[in-house]
Design brief:
DNA primase DNAg catalytic core, N-terminal domain, Dna Topoisomerase Vi A Subunit, Chain: A, domain 2, 5-stranded antiparallel β-sheet, 27 helices, 16 strands
Length: about 600
């Protein structure tokens, strides 16, 4: 990973206006001096996601996501910092300096880059091994599954040798440490056995992120070993809840919906048959993280899960998760076959295309499965069934949508529309009414870490200074970075005051780039985006500023009084001096 100087990083950032970059991902609308849109990092109905052209920052008042143009790409696209640099440099027509890594730069390279590098080496080794005499058994397995050489190449399929230290020996010779190999989830080390491969004697499926970076592996055992299927453990580059198998290809599909499968072979078979919009979760149930990831690429998902009991249960779990983020969902009928792979071999692409056209509405699918729990030939069973259906119809908050579903259910089960609607009304009365349409919560009221009053005051002061540097002439006479007692707040205040002193301006977006940790970047962005209540008159503004200065100064005095050593005479004299100054501030009339 190349090392870039602060000047080059800042030049790349300045060449890429944050409103233009984020506008390619989020629909933004100008409100005052900022732009607002729906947050891409959490589900919301009304936009609390703000982008400030003046600060060159984004911040969501709902979930707290925030940063500059680099952090946006790192969060949204799952880029490393180096990848974000390369993307933005290319976007702005800038050529980054090419240089070999020195020993010092290599030491500074992130662990994430090293993990991606070793995963790539492992994938290349597995790929080569499959095509050697040692990989004959796995090649036979893939061939029997009717995969072509082109398909195997596209997905980078491979083989892990039957010897349990084969990959370990190879990668150690390449210079990778045990620590990196363990961090990538490629080896296990036990005192009784030493180091051995996580995957051996398995047909290998490299797992790639949306940018075609190998982040993990899935392996299918050759023979009768257990477990039959094995996935990489969670690592710093492999988060099962934030990645989907095949999404690196499906994201560029011309189809406007995604097919969601259960297994790797289902995805591969569908892609080979021309359905390049198929993806699968990574050996785990669908999560809200998956749903939000899917939402970035489509509004419609077709569930093409196994047709057995487990597949039906998985679909029933997935439907509400997808609905929660606003994804429309339908269910593809696989019968009489178990899964898309078997279906494709049995009936072929044209029949599957027809199944997609006739996919079942997800609510009607839920009702059809619910029907299995009741005896509709028995009057009591039939009554109980419709009572449960009526309860579920209450989930639709909008009356028009609810009536549409009442009509669809009534038609399917040959019951009068008015009768079913009355039953829904009765259930609503019994259960306390209809659910109200979801009102967008102002992000400032959402569940976030509770701040105390002093944190709010210090954050407010930093936001004021960032937004109106003229305040430095007033504030700096009474407050300095030492008065910001919170750890990160103090660190940021030092940078802010120093920037203004040296440059006569404050560059908020540049300050964010000084912090490598994603959580710190997020918190720094929050420091520059405190919610400021609108104050109309000049006198009210002056009063608010004075009160905030007094609170921060008083807290600073109290804090230093507690931590001062009794022998620190200079510190004690400073506290006494500040107390007198505070008395003077309280008597003063501030003028802006």
């Amino acid at each position: 990973m190349p090392f870039y100087s602060e000047d080059i990083i800042e030049e790349v950032r300045q060449r890429n206006d944050i409103v233009d970059v984020i506008g390619n991902y989020v629909k933004l609308k100008r409100k005052g001096s900022s732009y607002f849109g729906l947050c891409p990092f959490h589900n919301e109905k009304t936009g609390s996601f703000s982008v400030s052209p003046n600060k060159q920052m984004y911040y969501c008042f709902g979930c707290g996501a925030g940063g500059n143009v680099f952090t946006f790409l790192m969060q949204y696209e799952n880029y490393s910092f180096a990848e974000a640099m390369e993307f933005l440099a290319e976007r702005s027509g800038m050529t980054l300096p090419k240089q070999e890594m020195t020993a010092e730069q290599k030491a500074r390279a992130s662990e994430r880059e090293m993990l991606l590098e070793v995963n790539k080496e492992a994938a290349k080794y597995f790929y080569t091994l499959l095509r050697s005499p040692r990989g004959e058994r796995a090649m036979e397995y893939f061939t029997k599954r009717q995969l072509t050489q082109d398909t195997m190449r596209k997905f980078g399929l491979g083989y892990s040798d039957q010897y349990s230290n084969d990959l370990y020996t190879y990668l150690r010779k390449k210079g990778y440490s045990d620590e990196i190999l363990m961090g990538a989830g490629l080896i296990t080390i036990k005192e009784s056995r030493g180091a051995y491969d996580k995957f051996w004697n398995r047909a290998m499926f490299p797992i790639m992120d949306v940018h075609n970076k190998v982040i993990g592996f899935g392996g299918r055992v050759m023979g009768d070993g257990e477990p039959k299927y094995l996935n990489s453990p969670e690592t710093k580059v492999f988060d099962k809840s934030r990645n989907l198998y095949g999404l690196n290809f499906a994201r560029t599909s011309k189809r406007d919906f995604l097919l969601l499968c259960e297994g790797y072979m289902d995805v591969i078979s569908l892609h080979q048959a021309g359905f390049d919009n198929a993806v699968a979760s990574l050996g785990t149930s669908l999560t809200s993280g998956h749903a939000n990831l899917l939402k970035r690429y489509t509004k419609d998902v077709y569930l093409t899960y196994d047709s057995d009991g487990a597949g039906v249960k998985a679909a029933l779990r997935a439907i509400p998760i997808l609905k929660e983020v606003g994804i429309r969902t339908k269910v593809v009928n696989m019968q009489p076959y178990k899964d898309p792979d078997e279906f494709m071999k049995g009936l072929g692409p044209e029949a599957y295309e027809e199944r997609i056209k006739n996919a079942e509405n997800s609510f009607m699918f839920e009702i059809r499965i619910l029907e299995r729990d009741f005896d509709l030939d028995d009057p009591e069973g039939k009554t109980n069934f419709f009572s449960e259906v009526a309860t579920r119809l209450l989930e639709f908050r909008e009356e028009l949508e609810r009536n549409n579903y009442i009509e669809a259910v009534a038609k399917k089960y040959n019951i009068g529309f008015d009768d079913l609607k009355q039953l829904v009304v009765n259930r609503a009365i019994k259960l306390g009414g209809y659910k109200k349409p979801v009102q967008m919560k102002d992000g400032r009221n959402s569940k976030k870490k509770k701040e105390d009053g002093m944190q709010q005051s210090q954050k407010l002061m930093l936001t004021w200074l960032i937004e109106d540097t003229r305040l430095f002439s007033v504030v700096s006479s009474y407050i300095s970075p030492v008065d910001f007692t919170e750890g990160l707040y103090h660190q940021v205040a030092e940078i802010v005051f120093k920037q203004y002193e040296e440059e006569g301006a404050v560059n908020a977006a540049k300050i964010i780039s000084m912090f490598e940790n994603e959580d710190e970047q997020r918190e720094v962005a929050a420091l520059f985006n405190a919610h400021i209540h609108e104050v109309e008159s000049k006198s009210d503004k002056e009063k608010a500023l004075k009160e905030t200065i007094i609170r921060i100064k008083q807290n600073s005095i109290n804090y230093r009084s507690k931590v001062l050593e009794p022998t620190d005479l200079q510190g004690l004299m400073k506290v006494v001096s500040d107390k007198k100054e505070l008395e003077n501030i309280e008597k003063m009339q501030f003028s802006l």
